[in-house]
Write a structure and sequence with these properties.
The chain is built from eleven helices and no strands. The chain is mainly α. The radius of gyration is 19 Å and the shape is elongated.
Length: 257
């Protein structure tokens, strides 16, 4: 049974990746907005931002990059919801259900494609950041930890995208759910220290998942001890992942029953 699921998932993932490769503009479009935000904040607004301890362009791009990476993921997962919505509305999912394949492989194919596509977009954004001054003291293990956190965050948000793709009534609705996720880093420590924010906003910023994840990534990039924030970040990612995965599976079973 496990082999059956793995084989089906690999086959369907290959199908989804082929669609992405045939329209590379998907990845390019996903990376354009985060890159534009990166350039805007570093070269236009960076000089006016006090991050506490030297706010040159180089230091600010180091501070900024973790939040931009999360925005990249939030932007990229909208395409997962869009592609799944088209499969559901086009009858492809029902056609798969009539074939002797593992049901869950249909969803996992979209999820794994999302992870692969988002990793490419993240690599593009990091490459641009290096070109404009980003420097890291992270060790190989630190980079592996960064990659692990980003993959876990991508999985968590992708299963949320699956829910949107299964429940949306229109194409626009399938991707519009990502807009609040893209905005969320602006109410965190991603762009400025939370200490500069007014009371209620500061409380929200310090207790929402993006801040813990951003602070953990920032510490890993700089080669500094991460501390308890890492466990908070992992708890948020795992919690969101489990809830969204369970909800997506229930919705999918009801839809294809």
């Amino acid at each position: 049974m496990t082999t059956h699921f793995v084989d089906d998932t690999v086959t369907l993932t290959g199908r989804s990746l082929t669609h992405v490769l045939r329209s590379p503009d998907t990845i390019i479009t996903t990376a354009v907005m985060p890159v534009a935000l990166l350039l805007l904040f570093v070269f236009v607004l960076g000089g006016a931002v006090d991050i506490g301890g030297g706010a040159g362009q180089g230091s600010y791009v180091d501070y900024l990059l973790p939040g931009i990476l999360l925005i990249t993921i939030a932007s990229g997962i909208s395409y997962t919801a869009y592609r799944l919505f088209l499969d559901v509305q086009g009858g492809i999912v029902e056609r798969f259900e009539s074939m002797p394949i593992a049901r869950s492989s249909v969803l996992w194919a979209h999820v794994l494609t999302s992870v692969a596509a988002n990793l490419i977009s993240l690599a593009v954004v990091v490459g641009v950041a290096v070109l404009i001054g980003f420097r890291s003291s992270a060790s190989v293990l630190d980079w592996l930890a960064v990659t692990g956190i980003l993959v876990l965050f991508t999985l968590a948000l992708t299963w949320l995208a699956v829910i949107a793709g299964l429940t949306a009534k229109t194409v626009d609705g399938a991707s519009a759910f990502s807009y609040p996720l893209i905005f969320l880093p602006f109410l965190s420590s991603a762009f400025v220290p939370t200490g500069s924010m007014p009371g209620p906003v500061r409380w929200f910023a310090e207790n929402q998942p993006v801040t813990a994840i951003v602070d953990s990534l920032r510490a890993l990039f700089s080669g500094q001890p991460v501390g308890g924030q890492l466990w908070v970040a992992l708890a948020w990612c795992v919690g969101i992942l489990l809830v969204t995965w369970a909800a997506a599976v229930v919705l999918f079973r009801r839809r294809v029953r």
